[in-house]
Amino acid sequence: TKVIEAFIKAFTLEKSSEEDIYAFEGVATETGTSDKGGEVFEHNAFNEQIGKTIVIQVMHGGIKTIIGTGTLSKIGNKIMVKGRLYEEVEQAVAIAKAKNDGVQFNLSIGGKRLEWSWAKDENDNTYLSTTKAMIREVSFTGEDEQAHPSAIVTKTEEDKKVMDDKKLEALLSGVEKTANTVAKLAEDLAKSR
Q1: Which is it for strands 78-85 and 68-75: parallel, antiparallel or unpaired?
Q2: Backbone phi, then psi, for 3, in 5-degree steps?
Q3: How far apart are alpha carbons 87 and 30 in whole angstroms?
Q4: How does pLDDT run across 130-180, given as a tens digit for each residue?
């Protein structure tokens, strides 16, 4: 079975600080745990990407949709992106203003798998284990499109909570159910081949 090397993963973006509505920070992905599609990025998969500056796009739309830049970092098992939207770009201004008004946007990474293999978990379920990957870009996407259930930003530049615990718990519950369904479908597909 051939695995497409390119990937797109989506995660939640935080609300900006009131002083600078063009600044943003969010979780790009989490390593060591399964996403909605049943893929696991292993803990060192993105080590060579840390410190890299990447373009910020709208919905993986290519060079015509660049709205800013961001830098990748790592906190524990989370790969973070912190950046700034371009004030001169109309789409960036609209997103910054909506984000500042409380609209929830997600971040979605786009890149390429460099090293991967099929693996089995403790329950003998098959999953895609990616040991090395490259992030090409991060895109702003709509709400509830994140690939990883824990990829939800809950603080602003000033460390203020963006969503209360009940809303966060409900969101994570819905994402987890979707992740389980997608993982089951991937497992069934792998067994049928």
Answers
A1: antiparallel
A2: -100, 130
A3: 29
A4: 999 999 999 888 776 656 554 444 333 444 444 455 555 555 555 555 555
In the chain, how long is the greatest CA-to-CA distance?
54
Which burial class, exposed, middle or buried, applies to 54 when counting CB atoms under 10 A from its CB (0-12, 13-18, 19+)? buried
pLDDT digits (tens, 9 = 90+) for 69-87: 999 999 999 999 999 999 9
Nearest to 59 by CA among 121, 118, 108: 108
Instruction: Please provide the DSSP assignment of 60-121 as one string.
Output: T--GGG--EEEEEEEETTEEEEEEEE-TTSHHHHHHHHHHHTT---EEEEEEEEEEEEEEE-
Residue of 32, 34, 33, 37 lying closest to 8 (CA atoms): 37
